[in-house]
Write a structure and sequence with these properties.
The complex is a heterodimer of chains A (about 70) and B (about 550). Helices cover about 45% and strands about 0% of the residues of chain A. With about 70 residues, chain A is mainly alpha-helical. Chain B starts with 11 loop residues before the first helix and ends in an 8-residue tail after the last helix. Classes of the chains: A mainly alpha (about 70), B mainly alpha (about 550).
C-alpha cells in the first residue's frame, strides 16, 4: 500500500470566509429572551412561534448562499 | 366512530388502509435489495452505507426520514399539549443543526471517503491511534441508539391504540418484518421506504394544517385555548426561568443529533460533498413540518382532546380521529407507523456497523473479510431489533423513554473525539478518555437529580430522571433557573479533556500517530481512496499534521 507515493495533488482547502455566515442561523435561534414575547402577532400566531418558524427561512437562506459560494471545492 | 367499528372495537377503515400501506412498504423493503443493484451486496459499504452513492434526492428523503422520527412526530405535540411553549424547542433545535452539519460532518464525509471509514469510531481509532477511545465511542453509540429504536415502537403503539388495536402481537409482527427486510436489503430499504413515509407525512400535515384550524375557528382560537390552559404558568410563552433550559436544550440536542450513529450513517451514504451541502438547505423543509406538527398539540387543546388513558402520546391520533374522515385518518396513522420503520431500520444498521467494525473486527476477529463483516452486521441488526421489541414488551416503556433521555446526554460525550477531532488533533487520546469518563459520570448524575413536582400540590411525582432540566440551585447557586443537563456534562467533558491533555503532554505520554492526512478532510468524489484501512492504521504511509 503506497499512500504517500500516490498522494493526489493538494486539494483546495475549502476555507472560504463565507462559512462565517453560518454563525447567524446557529446563534439567532438561541437568543430566547429576544423572541420570548407575544407581540407582534402574525395571523394569530404569537411572535415566539412565527419568529422561530422564520428562523428556518434564515437557515435555508444562509446555507444556500454558502453552498453557492463554496461549491465545487 | 361507532358506525365504523368492528366487533372488537377496531376501526375497520383506518386499520384496512394502515395495513395496505404497510404491505406496500414491506414489498418495497424487500425489493430494495435490487434497487441501484451493486455487484455484491455482501460488503459493508453496500449493505451498511447503500453503496456510498446516494444523490441529493435520495439523501434528502433518507436523512429526513432518519432525523424526524415517528417518536418525534408523536412526542413533540404531546409535549406541547402537556407543557406548552417548552415543547417548541424542536424548531430551534432543527434549525441550529444544519449549519453545524455543514461545517463539521462534511469533513467526516471526506475523511471517511478517503480512508474507508464506516463509523465515527473508525475515525476516532485512526485519528487518535486509540482503539480504546474508539471502543468507547462505539459502545456509547450503541447504548444511545438502542432505546431510540425502542421508542419508535412507542410511536407505532400510539397509533394502534387509537385504532382500537389491542395486544402486542401487531407490533411484534411489524418489527419482525422490518428486521427481515433490513437484513436482506440493508440501508437501501429505509432509503426507498423513506419516499413513501415522507409523501404520507407531508400530505397529512398539509391537510391537517389547513383543515383543523378552519374547523376550530382559526389560529386565534387555537393559541387562545393554549393560553387559557397554561394561564396558571406563563401562558403560551416560556417562563423567564425556563429560557436558558430552552436554548441549551435546543443547542445540546442539535449537537447530540448529529453525533448519533444513525445521522452519521445517513451523511456518509451520500455521493459527494455538494450533495451534503445542498441538503443542508433543503432539509429544513422538515423543520417547518415539525413546527407545524408541534402546534398539533395546541390544536388538540383547542379541540378538547382527551388522551387515551394517561398517555399524552395519543393526543395526535385522537385529534385526527375527531377531525378527519376515516379513510384519511388511515393515511395519517400509516404516516406515523411507517415513519417509525425508516429511522428504526437506519438506527439498527448504524448500531450493527459499530458493533461489526469496532467490536467484532477489533476484538473478536481481526482478519475478518469484507464478506464476513457484512454478514456479522446483518445478524447484529437483527439482534438489535429483537432487543428493542423485547425492551418494549418486557420492560416498562417508561424505562426506554428514560434511557433515550440519557442517550442524548451520553452521545454528546463523544463530541470532543468525533466533532472537535475533525478539526484538531491537539487532544491527547488519554485526555479524551478521561473527559469521556467525567462527562458520562456528571451527565448521569445531573439527570439523576432531576425530579418532577406536582405544580399544584407540591408533591414529588418522580424522584429521579424526570427530565433533562437540571436546577442550577443544586449547585448552590441562588436561582430558579434550569439548564439542559447534557450541556453541563459536555462542558465538564471538554474541560477535563483539555486539562488532562495538558498534563499528559507535559508527562510526554505517547500520543500515537495520526492515521489521517490534512488533505483528507477536504477530499471530494473522484479523489483517490485509501481503501484498506488496517494497513493505514498500522502505520504505513502515515503523515503527521
Amino acid at each position: 500500500m503506497a499512500t504517500t507515493e500516490n498522494r493526489p495533488i493538494r486539494r483546495a482547502r475549502d476555507r472560504s470566509p463565507w462559512y462565517w455566515l453560518l454563525v447567524i442561523p446557529v446563534v439567532l435561534p438561541l437568543l430566547v429572551p429576544v423572541f420570548n414575547r407575544t407581540d407582534p402577532t402574525l395571523f394569530g400566531w404569537p411572535f415566539f412561534y412565527w419568529a422561530q418558524i422564520a428562523f428556518i427561512g434564515v437557515g435555508v437562506l444562509t446555507t444556500t448562499v454558502v453552498y453557492q459560494k463554496t461549491k465545487g471545492h | 366512530m361507532p358506525v365504523n367499528e368492528g366487533p372488537d372495537g377496531i376501526q375497520v377503515t383506518e386499520a384496512t388502509i394502515f395495513v395496505a400501506l404497510f404491505l406496500v412498504v414491506t414489498v418495497m423493503g424487500f425489493l430494495a435489495s435490487r434497487w441501484r443493484r451493486p455487484e455484491d451486496l455482501l460488503h459493508l459499504d453496500e449493505w451498511g452505507l447503500g453503496g456510498r452513492n446516494f444523490g441529493s434526492w435520495v439523501t434528502w428523503f433518507l436523512i429526513g426520514g432518519d432525523l424526524y422520527t415517528a417518536y418525534t412526530f408523536v412526542a413533540v405535540p404531546a409535549l406541547m399539549f402537556g407543557a406548552g411553549a417548552a415543547g417548541f424547542f424542536a424548531v430551534p433545535y432543527t434549525v441550529v443543526i444544519y449549519p453545524m452539519v455543514f461545517l463539521v460532518l462534511i469533513r467526516l464525509w471526506s475523511v471517511s471517503h478517503v480512508r474507508g471509514f464506516v463509523t465515527p469510531a473508525d475515525f476516532v481509532r485512526s485519528r487518535f491511534d486509540s482503539p480504546t477511545m474508539a471502543l468507547l465511542v462505539a459502545i456509547t453509540g450503541i447504548v444511545a441508539t438502542m432505546p431510540y429504536i425502542a421508542l419508535q415502537l412507542i410511536g407505532i403503539e400510539a397509533v394502534l391504540k387509537a385504532m382500537g388495536v389491542e395486544g402486542e402481537l401487531p407490533i411484534i409482527v411489524a418489527f419482525v418484518i422490518l428486521a427481515l427486510y433490513t437484513y436482506s436489503s440493508g440501508l437501501r430499504a429505509p432509503a426507498l421506504i423513506a419516499f413513501v413515509k415522507d409523501a404520507l407525512i407531508y400530505l397529512t400535515i398539509i391537510v391537517a394544517i389547513i383543515v383543523i384550524p378552519v374547523k376550530l375557528g382559526g389560529w386565534d382560537v387555537i393559541f387562545g385555548a393554549a393560553e387559557e390552559k397554561f394561564s396558571m404558568g406563563s401562558g403560551v410563552l416560556l417562563p423567564s426561568t425556563g429560557q436558558l433550559q430552552y436554548a441549551t436544550l435546543a443547542f445540546g440536542s442539535a449537537l447530540a443529533l448529529f453525533l448519533y450513529p444513525h445521522s452519521i450513517t445517513g451523511v456518509l451514504a451520500s455521493k459527494n460533498r455538494d450533495v451534503i451541502k445542498r441538503n443542508m438547505s433543503a432539509l429544513p423543509a422538515y423543520s417547518l413540518v415539525l413546527g407545524l406538527i408541534a402546534l398539533l398539540g395546541f390544536m388538540a387543546i383547542a379541540a378538547g382532546v382527551q388522551p387515551i388513558g394517561t398517555d399524552n402520546n395519543t393526543v395526535v391520533p385522537v385529534l385526527f380521529d375527531q377531525m378527519f374522515y376515516d379513510w384519511f385518518n388511515g393515511i395519517a396513522y400509516a404516516a406515523i407507523g411507517i415513519g417509525a420503520l425508516v429511522p428504526a431500520a437506519i438506527m439498527a444498521i448504524a448500531a450493527a456497523n459499530l458493533f461489526t467494525r469496532n467490536i467484532y473486527k477489533e476484538y473478536i476477529r481481526k482478519d475478518a473479510t469484507p464478506r464476513q463483516e457484512a454478514q456479522v452486521a446483518k445478524v447484529a441488526s437483527l439482534v438489535v431489533k429483537l432487543g428493542a421489541v423485547a425492551a418494549i414488551l418486557f420492560i416498562d416503556p417508561q424505562f426506554s423513554i428514560d434511557l433515550q433521555l440519557i442517550g442524548g446526554v451520553i452521545i454528546l460525550q463523544t463530541l470532543p473525539a468525533v466533532a472537535v477531532g475533525l478539526f484538531t488533533r491537539w487532544f491527547h487520546r488519554a485526555g479524551l478518555i478521561a473527559g469521556w469518563v467525567a462527562g458520562m459520570g456528571s451527565g448521569v448524575w445531573l439527570l439523576y437529580t432531576v425530579k418532577r413536582v406536582d405544580p399544584v400540590t407540591g408533591d414529588v411525582i418522580r424522584e429521579h430522571f424526570a427530565g433533562s432540566a437540571f436546577s442550577l440551585s443544586n449547585l448552590g447557586i441562588d436561582t430558579t433557573y434550569t439548564i439542559y443537563a447534557g450541556f453541563i456534562a459536555v462542558l465538564v467533558n471538554l474541560l477535563v479533556t483539555v486539562l488532562a491533555t495538558v498534563i499528559f503532554r507535559r508527562m510526554r505520554l505517547p500520543a500515537g500517530t495520526d492515521g489521517t492526512g490534512i488533505d483528507d478532510y477536504f477530499a471530494n468524489e473522484g479523489d483517490p481512496r485509501v481503501k484498506d484501512l488496517p494497513e493505514v492504521v498500522e502505520g504505513v504511509g502515515l503523515r503527521k499534521e
